[in-house]
Amino acid sequence: MFISILKKFKEAAMGVIPITLILLIVNFTVSPMSTGNLISFLIGALLLVAGLTLYNFGCGSSIEFIGGQTGAHVSKSSKLPLILALCGIIGFVVTVAEPDLSVLAEQVSGIDNFLLIAAVALGVGIFVVIAVMRLVLKIELKWILLFFYALLFVLAFILPRKFVPIAFDSSGVTTGPVTVPFIMALGASLSVALGGKDSQDSSFGILGICSIGPIFAVMILSLVCNLSVDTSQTETIVINTFGDVLTNYAVNFPKYLKEMAIAIAPITIFFLVYNFTSLKLSWKRLIRTLFNMLYVYIGLSIFLLGANVGFVPAGKHFGEALVTSPALLVAIGALLGAVIVLAEPAVHVLTKQVEDVTGGTIKNRTILVIMCFSMALAIGLSMLRIIFDIDLRWVLLAGYGIALGLMFLVPKIFTGIAFDSGGVASGAMTAAFLLPLANGATYALYGSSENLSSYIMNDAFGVVALVAMTPLVTIQVLGLVYKLRSSALERERTEEFSALLAYEGEVIDISETTLETEERLLDKIRQRRNDRIDKIKQKKNERIDKIKQKKNNKKNEGGN
């Protein structure tokens, strides 16, 4: 156990240390924070490491295990309506439990928080059902995505501009540290049972489909509710003394303990009810799962405390300070984006499952590098959008247009991974640091404007949307490179095989062969070569025997 925790600690530290060092360098060279804010930031960094360690240690044996067991059991049912109903309920429950969604809801006024959360959760639940139906009906992922994103963009250009960033941001925050491991494990189990021969490809993409639901939900809500943002707390709060820092953490910790208790409770209750009625796990396995859920609860509470209390003020401060040098804001924003993804809990869940499902063909490290590049691109674009007040809809239309086009060129599994990774990149750290960074920059640029609320809705929001969009392109470009390289290797193999067949006198259309028939041909050629070698050896031995016989005959004649 100690060794496992130590391993998770090292992973968490490697994720948090880079962003901490970068921000310290910026603090001491470009824009120093107050002593209190700096101490608060450093304490926050330590809490992030501790929280990530506990979360990663407990997640695999609790949330992922529950999702996998539920999916495996549900898929055994022969009653499709029951499967769909349970999957819809699961989607709703785990989304209500997502802490990132509560953070977003608190920043949106003009609508009750619970109504917004319930609407988004309903959207996820409906699209979980659609994702499962895709597996049952064997519909390719690209057609589902193409159809629904086409509808989304039609609606996006009908709605006022200011509602679109919040709608797309809501999609990113629903796929966080609670939702991702559960739904990915559920999807992996269902794809094995329902996906048939394409189960590996089908195991990815369920998160990508689920991410569409919240966008529709918030867009529909904006038609009937006047969504807006509260600008009263936009300006950075300065903390001066060490006592104020400790007081701030002490006051806020019970809040996050309560939030995470509310977040974890639905999924825990669901698991207990489902276990005693259907799963019927052993008491030992049940207690172990609940004990590991406790690690997740404490870990996420500590993580959110460090992120929101330590990193939110730092994000606002640097956003306000760096906006005076636009080039520096874009450069540092991109650099921070590249390293901050390493601290996202859900990203590590995804990359681990990618490596497991593909049998190590697609490495954990490869996906992490691509995610870092994607985040750098997303945050760089976000800062440019704030500086030049660029309409998010056109950026999203271009990005999703490229992503949807690439679906027809890359292997299916890369499309599923890409659309899943878009959601997991936009997690707690994005909400806790990058959104405040964008808010601080927007406030510094437009704080004196009477339309500050509109500027924040148009420009500060949308960071999560771009973070969710860029991996769709970059990971599919990786898939395209992989396909082109595989095609080149295949052509080389075909040419070599054709030459071998020609040399051996075989006449066959290589384009119509399968790996099985090629293996049979190779076995036949090997056998033929072995036969030729045996004949050569036999003739050689016969010649040697004749020579020996002649020598013996000569000796006998000489003796006589």
Layout: helices, strands, pairs:
Layout: H1 2-29, H2 35-59, H3 63-75, H4 80-96, H5 99-107, E1 108-109, H6 113-137, H7 141-158, H8 163-173, H9 179-194, H10 199-202, H11 206-210, H12 212-224, E2 228-229, H13 242-279, H14 283-322, H15 326-340, H16 345-357, H17 364-388, H18 392-406, H19 412-425, H20 428-446, H21 452-460, H22 463-504, H23 515-559
Antiparallel strand pairs: 1-2
Characterize this entry briefly:
The chain has 560 residues and is mainly α.
Write structural notes for this entry:
- It is a single chain.
- This protein is mainly α and 560 residues long.
- The chain is 82% helix and 1% strand.
- The chain contains 23 helices and 2 strands.
- A two-stranded antiparallel ribbon has the order 1-2.
- Helix 5 crosses helix 6 and helix 17 packs parallel to helix 20 (428-446).
- The radius of gyration is 30 Å and the shape is elongated.
- The N and C termini lie far apart (90 Å).
- The relative contact order is 0.12.
